[in-house]
Amino acid sequence: MAEYKMLLKEYQKMLKAINNFKNNNGRLPNYYDWNTKINGVKATIRLKKEKYQDAIDRVNAFIKKEKRDPNYVTVEGSDMTASNSSTSSSSSRNIISGSFKPSCSYCYSKLPYTTYKTSFENKCGRCGKVGKMTDTPKGGRTKIKEGEWTCDVAKGGCGADFCGVCGKEKMNPAKGWLIQVDVPSKVRHE
Fold it and tell me: I need a labelling partner for 74 at 20 to 30 A (CA). Which of 12, 87, 161, 174 fits?
């Protein structure tokens, strides 16, 4: 693990994402993936629950003592990805990302119907094959306007479909979930 300086604005964004996750799921996330730049290179830093909670405690103690917000907080995390492009690649994991609307019964009951940016491991939650997931808006009369991830049969996958927001398989009952690598964030339309 390495130490990084998280600026106040990034810290506030983290707090908001953690609180949104808690409000939607009734618990704190197991980790927070912080998208930032390190030496001009886009990177995603994974903060485990105990590490982001420690940062929150230290910021609160600083505010109580100094009567002002800090300029930054030092956090300890694992550098997951680094990329110069808008699409992150990972040396340790194959990550898929996209923008989706809730498309399963779980999300319909828990989230506002809006667009969310999400990232998952590119590993099927049903068959376990890696690198087979495809963003599939579907076609023709059965077009799924929300979007979904499919374990692509053309790539040797099993054909299972998953909600693009939470990663739940779109079967009743679901037989698997995609592994989420960040907290879903609402996409702002300006």
Answer: 87
| Residue reference for tokens 């998953």 | 162
Q: Which token pair is 48?
A: 């485990």
* Cα–Cα distance for residue pair 26/74, rounded to 1 Å: 27
C-alpha to C-alpha distance for 103 and 171, rounded to whole angstroms: 12
Q: From the CB of residue 96, how many other CB atoms can be counted at a distance below 10 Å? A: 20
pLDDT 10s per residue in the chain (190 long)? 567 788 999 999 999 999 999 998 889 998 888 888 765 667 778 888 999 999 999 999 999 999 999 998 888 775 454 333 233 334 445 788 888 888 888 787 878 888 888 888 889 999 999 989 988 765 543 555 788 899 989 889 999 999 988 889 988 888 889 988 766 666 544 3
3-state secondary structure of 167: coil
Interatomic CA distance for residues 46 and 31, integer angstroms: 7
- R_g (Cα) of the chain, nearest Å: 18
Instruction: Name the residue among 15, 18, 8 with its Cα closest to residue 69.
Output: 8
Domain ranges of the chain: 2-83, 95-186
Say which amino acid occupies 95.
I
Residue 178: other Cβ atoms inside 10 A: 26
pTM above 0.90?
no
Helices 8-25 & 49-66 angle (0-180, nearest 10): 120
